[in-house]
Amino acid sequence: MRELVEEAIRRVSEGPNAPNVVFLLLLLALIVAPLVAAWAHLPPIFGLVCAGMVMGPHGLDVLVGRHVVLDTAGNIGLLYAMFVAGLELELAQFTRYRRTALLFALASFAIPFVLGVTSARLLGYAGAAAVLLGASWGSHTLVTYPRLRELGLAHHRAVTTVVGATPATSILVVCVLAHISVDARRGTGLLAEGIEIVLGLGLLALWSGVGLPRLARRFFAFARTDSARFVFALAAMCVAAIVAEAAGMPGIVGAFFAGLGLGRVLPAQSELRARIEFVGSALFVPIFLLWVGMRVDPRVFLAMRSVAFVLVFTAIAVGGKALAAVLVGRHAAFDRAEIGVMSGLASSQVAITLAAAVAGAHLGVFDAFTVHVVLAVILATVVVTPLIVEAFGRRLAAKASLHG
After folding, report:
1. Residue 51 pLDDT
2. Angle at Cα 29 formed by Cα 22 and Cα 53, nearest 5°?
């Protein structure tokens, strides 16, 4: 029976209608996976990631020969999530909480970094691998941000604090990765790498603060259709991501800056902004979650050594962020629900963590086992953090509605 199923899958996936079949499978996964997860009282993210595991190369592999296309779609979904986060961040509100955001960025990087390096060394990792692992847990990806937006908390001070801290934590990880890369290549100097990153950040800030808003206003005045304006927004996101990558930073940092720039042009209640957010939550971000699931080998969870490593690093990634949220939240006089939202929102390990794992493998710092452990930790965090955000987010939304 299995041979017949595999042969049928091969014929369909390699035939002339393969692109249509792939797209249909993706759409079915986007429809069915969240419904099954809701039926099981689990977050939609869990269903989408598990669907990716089933459909991916470590499962049924029903997308044979289409992994390059899906890698592209997954990366675009990741950029889009950060782009929307930057778009919705009101700079005036961020300025109000800038001290808290910067303090949280430092604490939420330093605590998991120190714990990660220490535990990695105890588990037998060499210096460079231990440092890169520790730095990986210091970053975070705003995977649960769309759910907080649905709860009406996108502009809440707790959410703004974490969103504002995101680029800073990403840059800190990039600096560590640059140092390890220099040490591995023995080619360029650390000073040259640092200057390149500083110049790249300055260019992104200038582009998002001055160039992009001016260009967007002129283009929007010329192009009257929302379709043309929507394509312009996507192009701005991609340009900023390319600039960031050319400067040695992750593309998501550039996408975030592009969202900041366009946020100065698009009113909060504009129809175009609503459409940008809708396309992201309905298509790009779910495809990205499927893509993450496709990269996870379920057999990692079956090996006792792997389970131990995954549990340790997941505890560090989630617990370190929670400790940072408690310390900074209490310093800023946040209540328990706000601290819980900060902890859940900042604990998802996807974007920079995945980029660091791939870069570490290319540099010879990580072996295949470590890469799979990192992927398993990513899966664990995107399963655990929605539960945290859902619990504390509902409580915070109810409190906000009473005071509103």
Report:
1. 85
2. 90
